[in-house]
UniProtKB/TrEMBL annotation:
Single GO biological process annotation from the record: cell surface receptor signaling pathway
Keywords, ordered alphabetically: ATP-binding, Disulfide bond, EGF-like domain, Glycoprotein, Kinase, Membrane, Nucleotide-binding, Phosphoprotein, Repeat, Serine/threonine-protein kinase, Signal, Transferase, Transmembrane, Transmembrane helix
Name of the protein: Wall-associated receptor kinase-like 8
GO cellular component: plasma membrane
Residue span(s) of domain Protein kinase: 442-715
InterPro entries for this protein: EGF, EGF-like_Ca-bd_dom, EGF-type_Asp/Asn_hydroxyl_site, EGF_Ca-bd_CS, Kinase-like_dom_sf, NELL2-like_EGF, Prot_kinase_dom, Ser/Thr_kinase_AS
Organism of this sequence: Sesamum indicum
Gene from which this protein is expressed: LOC105165058
The keyword Chaperone is annotated on this UniProt entry: no
């Protein structure tokens, strides 16, 4: 849409009438000692407008003035005179006025800047006329299809009493303003906050607005001291409310001429990314306006002025013309900037608003003074910096220590200790340096093993004791609770067959636990690693089983609060120098109230050892530990792993294979060949029957761990077969009991007939 072909619409349905090294050292010292003088740089930055007065304002051969108005290119005076960048920017200069007036389409232009056009305003008014009921007044403006939009620096303004103005765009409200008052005493000059005058913002990029003005309450009687109200869109801060405006009959004409409306403009159909069509000349930069019109503008670079759309473009500003330097200094203009040079024997930055030029005498004295100033400045700077560094380092170290302590569960540990009436003195609190020395900075060669909760290192303390240091993985909330839980559990335990916790360290990135060192590895390795060559006798297996059963019985019945291990497996049974069993890894263990029969938790544990009843119900009982112990018993009997990958899919589970052989009376086929050679068949059968009872699908039918420990102790010294048989009842399966296995052989249930 071209402006001369189709006017910009502005309609109101209610008509209204309208020396260089020394100098550098001195400057550096001055900046150190007098940093406030740096503010001169702010004052020395010269703002400029792209359209400064000069010979390159309008296109050559085209007029640059219409009356008192300067018309810069890309705008141009004349219709179809090729003086503008395109017909949208044609300015019609009407000489019938004195002085002549400029029009953009049908809009009177009051001024043109590098980003905006100031146009003469228009107002709508709404007055109460006796005998008539006026529904409202409207006006609209349409800039659609042009490179112009209403600037969001305009404000929707309403002046009056009980008047409201709504601004909409295509039926959607975008702004509104309400002015109320009942008597003149309520009004205040300069206040436009809703009493007699209100203002509201509009969004950016609007090209079409439709404004409706209405009464909130139709005035009548003595309250109607001002029947008229006014609504207009105008540049913010250009209108200042006066109480007299409420009843001034000349308000409309006066405001239209003095309060402009702002319109943003840009060069259409190109953006700064489209370099082939950009006309920004030398010394200027392309700017994409923050609108949705898809155009661009050109601005002169810092320190330049002129018209960025016309050759030769923006020209360097001679800043020296504004005397920015000290009177004793010489100003040297540079492209886009300037330099202030002090005379001989004077030193400093030479700036009028900076250090200026300071006389320090001949060069010899100047060097001394400069050296002293630099030395003093550097000394003060160094001393203050060192003090601040030490203070900051000390504060940060303290905060980091507290943060790591909290993150590693220090507060949680304190709560647990308070709840369980424990004394921190029972354990030693190690420093991170102690444990780094003990483990040779956690050398890979010191690793004893890796588990789900972390890595265990072998270490030697300063007193010569060998210890195992457990370094937890990066702690999240759940692992933090497991770590603290292990500390709390182990601090309550004092048993010869439970690994002893010596202390902990909470000041490292990840928490550390220090245990007594158990030298002979795990029961799992002893059972399943034939390369050791160790004679793993039946008597030793039976003793280890009895020791672990005794340790579990201690946890279940002898501690002040019963403890369920919840991860009973051969990997968590350690062997000391005499191959005595030591139960370890209490990361997921839990304490329970004496009158509590089970724990309802998320299922945790090791595949192959999990109680199927616990797996199905999420309720862990003391009999769940008994089931896992039963799996360890059949590991000792068979020498096989709980889950095997070398057999068919349905025979993966050792428990499944063991129970089937027991049901078919084929125990000898599954026993470890190393114990068959040693005889003691009756003891094998007794332990197998005990294991079968522990592996009963119903937790209620399993023996307690105390009964298991007692029975194992009775088997060990008993050499008379009749004694073993009498002490170990043979549990046979009835017709009402059957086994069901899933295809992967991993989970099974028992159906019990009524």
């Amino acid at each position: 849409m071209q402006l001369q072909d189709q006017e910009i619409t502005f309609c109101d349905i209610q008509p209204v009438s309208v020396n260089m090294h020394i100098s550098s050292l001195l400057n550096f010292a001055m900046l150190l000692l007098f940093p406030s003088h740096l503010s001169w740089t702010v004052a020395a930055i010269y703002s400029n407008t792209s359209f400064a007065d000069g010979p390159y304002i309008a296109k050559p051969g085209c007029p640059s003035k219409c009356g008192d108005l300067t018309v810069p290119y890309p705008f141009g005076i004349g219709i179809n005179a090729n003086c503008s960048i395109n017909p949208f920017f044609d300015i019609n200069c009407n000489p019938s006025f004195n002085p002549p007036k400029a029009f953009l389409g049908n809009l009177e232009v009051l001024g043109i800047s590098e980003t905006k056009v100031h146009i003469r305003n228009n107002l709508t008014s709404l007055c109460a006329v006796p005998g008539y009921i006026l529904q409202g007044a409207k006006f609209y403006m349409d800039l659609s299809g042009t490179p112009f939009s209403f600037s969001n620096q305009n404000k929707l303004t309403v002046v009056g009493c009980n008047h409201v103005s709504f601004m909409s765009k295509l039926g959607t409200y975008i702004s509104a303003c309400v002015a109320v008052c009942s008597k003149p005493q309520e009004l205040n000059n300069g206040s436009c906050t809703g009493i007699g005058c209100c203002q509201a913002s509009i969004p950016k990029g609007l090209q079409y607005i439709d404004t409706t003005m209405m009464f909130m309450n139709y005035p009548s009687g003595d309250d109607n001291f001002n029947p008229c109200g006014y609504s207009f869109l105008a540049e913010q801060n250009s209108y200042i409310f006066s109480v007299s405006d409420i009843s001034d009959p000349s308000f409309v004409d006066r405001t239209m001429g003095t309060v402009p409306l702002l319109i943003d403009w840009e060069i259409p159909s190109r953006t700064c990314n489209d370099s082939s069509g950009i006309i920004c000349e030398e010394g200027s930069v392309c700017v994409d306006p923050d609108t949705t019109l898809g155009g661009y503008r050109c601005n002169c670079s810092q320190g330049y002025q002129g018209n960025p759309y016309l050759s030769p473009g923006c020209q360097d500003i001679n800043e020296c013309d504004s005397n920015p330097c000290d009177p004793k200094a010489m100003c040297i203009n540079t492209p886009g900037s300037f330099i202030c040079s002090c005379p001989p024997d004077y030193h400093g930055d030479g700036a009028k608003y900076g250090i200026g030029c300071v006389y320090l005498g001949p060069p010899e004295k100047t060097a001394v003074y400069a050296g002293l100033l630099v030395g003093c400045g550097l000394f003060i700077l160094l001393a203050v910096s060192l003090w601040l560094y030490k203070l900051l380092r000390k504060t940060r170290a303290k905060q980091l220590k507290q943060s790591i302590f909290k993150r590693n569960g220090g507060l949680l540990l304190q709560q647990h200790m308070s709840a369980h009436d424990l004394l921190l003195g029972k354990m030693r609190i190690f420093t991170s340096k102690e444990l780094e020395r003990a483990t040779d900075r956690f050398n890979e060669n010191r690793i004893l093993g890796r588990g789900g909760q972390g890595t265990v290192y072998k270490g030697m303390l300063s007193d010569g004791r060998i210890v195992a240091v457990k370094k937890s993985k990066q702690v999240d909330k759940n692992q933090q609770e497991e770590f603290i839980n292990e500390v709390v559990i182990l601090s309550q335990i004092n048993h010869r067959n439970v690994v002893k916790l010596l202390g902990c360290c909470l000041e490292t990135e990840v928490p550390l636990l220090v245990y007594e060192f158990i030298p002979n590895g795990t029961l799992y390795d002893l059972i399943h690693d034939d390369s050791t060559g160790f004679p793993f006798s039946w008597d030793l297996r039976l003793r280890i089983a009895a020791e672990i059963a005794d340790a579990l019985a201690y946890l279940h019945y002898a501690t002040s609060i019963p403890i369920y291990h919840r991860d009973m497996k051969s990997n968590n049974i350690l062997l000391d120098e005499k191959y005595r069993a030591k139960l370890s890894d209490f990361g997921i263990s839990r304490s329970v109230a004496i009158d509590q029969t089970h724990l309802t938790t998320k299922v945790q544990g090791t595949f192959g050892y999990l109680d199927p009843e616990y797996f199905q119900t999420s309720q862990f009982t003391e009999k769940s530990d008994v089931y896992s112990f039963g799996v360890v018993l059949i590991e000792l009997l068979t020498g096989q792993k709980p889950i095997s990958t070398s057999v068919t899919e349905k025979e993966k589970s050792l428990v499944m294979r063991f129970l089937l052989t027991m049901e078919e009376n084929r125990l000898q086929t599954i026993l470890d060949s190393r114990i068959i050679e040693q005889g003691a068949k009756e003891e094998h059968l007794a332990v197998a029957n005990l294991a079968r009872r522990c592996l009963n699908f119903s937790g209620k039918k399993r023996p307690t761990i105390r009964e298991v420990a007692t029975e194992l102790e009775s088997i060990r010294p008993c050499e008379n077969p009749s004694c073993i048989e009498s002490n170990t009842p043979d549990i046979s399966f009835t017709e009402a009991e059957s086994f069901r296995f899933r295809d992967d052989g991993s989970l099974w249930t028992q159906n019990v007939g009524s």
